[in-house]
Amino acid sequence: MWSDNETSEDLLGFKIHADLLIDVINDESVLPVTIGVFGDWGSGKSSILKIVKDELSGEGDDLRDETLVLYFNGWVFEGYDDAKAALLESIVEKFREHKTIGNKVKDQTTKLLKSVDWMRVLGLSFKKIIIPGAMAYSTGGLSLIPCFMGEFSKLDPKELGDKLQGEDAEDFLSGIIKKNEHEDTTLVREFREDFKEMIDKSEIKKLVVIIDDLDRCTPERLIENLEAIKLFLNVEKTAFIIGADPRIVRHAIEFRYKTDQIQNADDPNSRNKRIVSDYLEKLIQVPYNLPRLSSNEVETYITLLFCKKELGGEFSKVLEAYQKFRDSDRYGTFGFGNLEGVIEKNDQQRVAEKVSLIASLSPIITKGLNGNPRQIKRFLNTFTLRNRLVEVAKIPDFKIEVLAKLMVLEYSEPSLFNTLYTWQSMQSGYSAELKELEFFASEKDKAGLKEKFGEGWALAKIITWLNAEPALSDIDLRDYYWISRDRLTDSISGSSLIPMHVRMVFKKMLESGSASILKTTVSTEVKDKLQEEDLNTLYSLLNKELEKTPGSSWLHQIYVELMENKIDDSVESYERMLRHIDNKKIPFSLRNNLFLAEKKNQKIKQIYAKFEPESRIYKALNPKK
Question: Domain KAP NTPase, which positions (predicted)?
Fold first, then answer.
């Protein structure tokens, strides 16, 4: 099994990306700069940032080339009432506690921490934070708000307690804030000036702050972290590197500024788009988007993962050979053949048994998992676990290559995987439909596939999958689906692989309860926002719910809204889903909604054509019957 932790051990050839970022940071003419390392969830951002950190920083508190590197996980501040203040305080504390520069900047850190306290006071709620903190002071406990201590000391404890427990407690504290409060612009300007002075007195050449995992934060916390970073913009000698999924960041900005309530949200020149773009452009001077792994890179990655797992200490030889290979051929595949002469024959044979099958499927895995390193690891972990289950269950004549091929379909197109499950379960493990599919694919008859089985089976990656060895139509698939039953009894796409933003959108659609809110959600958070793999996951989640409750008018209405907005593959997904649910429970109330939706999307008509005119589905769905 493989862990999912970030690492500076470069199995992806990502050091070239890290080296590019380091080159930018080391160019003093570019500083100050904020760099955004953007990529999908699990794309390898954290590993790149770890390489950057290790390359730039010294051991412990030692400085390398007079560069101070601070690394923060944005998710750490998720539980704070004010993530913005928590991040600022953490940065200043790192300076104060540093063994080399701490004494040089003692006065500046003290002053900066007081400024952060004021930011915290101005940002926190009176009833939940300030009043309880003040009460703690009045009863002899530790105060959470040092900025009030001067005013509190003028009153005796009983008088202070009476003021804090009375109805005018909030007015009393507001008066203290107004009496001592700086203007916001003044506070920000002073903070920036004091921070610059601290850097100058520390005698470092540059400060590099790396903030990772922002895309795991809630929208509110993510924006608070970004607002903290904005305070440092244009402060000399600083470089901020932010690792995040840009889709999550954009969603958080939209959430913060409520752009989903703005008219013409689909217009690229609308205020909605400009707010998000302007915000990011002002914050991020250098956006760097990580490319997805190619099929050659996926095969290389899989080879190295298996080598690391099987070889233990001998893996260092493979890693060294791989690095030399990369220097001479960055486009080729470092595969099983490259291991000859690097490791012992016995080790080579052991690795070959593990890696050859999966590596041969790398082009399909690349398309199915979108070249995503995290999903590849999870795919391999599941494959390994199921392989062990085969051994424990002692299933005879089990072909591991069949399991591998089925799992590629399971992870790349879960709805089709579920369809194949239904076909084979009704035909004692075999599927006549699959035999036809393989024939159409072998003839490269995409039109035939599309006409008879729908657009899903006519996708280029599915045709490649159908043509890949081994052919499955003459194999009893019951044992293979039995091994995969964990994915058939739970969400077919695997909850651990569902990105946070897809879960949030799905939950929002389910719980909206209002047609207008549903319409807004689809038009602003689904249409032109979700990529193909996100939509597939969304459809899988929705289909799973409809299989459980096919009579739910609201679940059908969600699909109607998706189809009305012409969301990619929504009509095809709905039609496939209808074939698998209890037809007797389909609500007739859908007629009017479908009739209205059909005016905006003529493709909806093709659903009726797939069913017999006298069938319940046809009568329930066709508004003309």
Answer: 18-389
Give Rg (Cα) of the chain.
Answer: 29
Q: In what order do the strands lie in the sheet with 286-289?
A: 67-73, 206-212, 238-244, 33-38, 286-289
CA distance 106 to 102: 6
Q: Cα 121 vs. chain centroid, distance in angstroms? A: 33
Distance of CA 463 to the CA centre of its chain: 28
The answer for residues whose C-beta is within 8 angstroms of residue 298's C-beta and 6 or more apart is 362, 363, 365, 366, 371, 376
DSSP per-residue string spanning 34-75: EEEEE--TTSSHHHHHHHHHHHH--STT--BTTEEEEEEEGG
pTM: 0.61
The lowest-confidence range among 381-390, 510-519, 606-615 is: 606-615
CA distance 215 to 229: 15
Closest-CA residue to 215 (of 207, 225, 206): 225
Round to whole Å and give the CA distance between 373 and 358.
Answer: 15
Neighbours of 594 (CB within 10 A): 21
Query: E strand or H helix at 27, and its extent?
Result: none
Distance between CA atoms of residues 578 and 142, nearest Å:
63
Higher pLDDT, 135 or 532: 532
Q: How far apart are CA 187 and CA 413, in angstroms?
A: 53
Q: Where are the alpha helices (DSSP H) in 361-499?
A: 362-368, 373-393, 400-412, 414-425, 432-442, 446-453, 460-467, 478-483, 485-489
> Which residues are CB-neighbours of 583 under 8 A, at least 6 positions away?
615, 616, 617, 620
Q: What is the DSSP string of 223-278?
A: HHHHHHHHTTTT-TTEEEEEEE-HHHHHHHHHHHHTGGGSS-TT-TTSHHHHHHHH
Q: How far is CA 88 from CA 34, 462, 588, in A?
A: 16, 49, 58
In terms of Cβ atoms closer than 10 Å to its own Cβ (0-12, 13-18, 19+), residue 346 is: exposed
As a whole number of angstroms, the distance between CA 96 and CA 204 comes to 14
pLDDT in tens, 262-276: 444 455 555 666 777
Close Cβ partners of 18 (under 8 Å, ≥ 6 residues apart): 48, 51, 52, 55
601 and 594 Cβ atoms separated by less than 8 Å: no
Q: Output the CA torsion sign for 445, 449, 450, 452.
A: positive
Averaged pLDDT, 151-175:
59
Distances 219 to 256, 260, 273, 297, 545 between C-alpha atoms, Å: 7, 14, 17, 33, 27
- The amino acid that residue 182 corresponds to is H
For the packed helices 414-425 and 400-412, what is the interaxial angle rounded to 10 degrees? 130
Q: Is 412 exposed, middle or buried (0-12, 13-18, 19+ CB in 10 A)?
A: buried
Q: What letter does residue 333 receive in the DSSP assignment?
A: -
Tokens 């069938």 found at: 615
Q: How many helices (H) does the chain have, and how many strands (E)?
A: 32, 5
Q: Say if residue 387 is exposed, middle or buried (CB neighbours under 10 Å; 0-12, 13-18, 19+).
A: middle
Instruction: Please report which confidence band the pLDDT of residue 187 belongs to, taking 50, 70 and 90 as the band edges.
Output: low
Q: Is the pLDDT of residue 615 over 80?
A: no
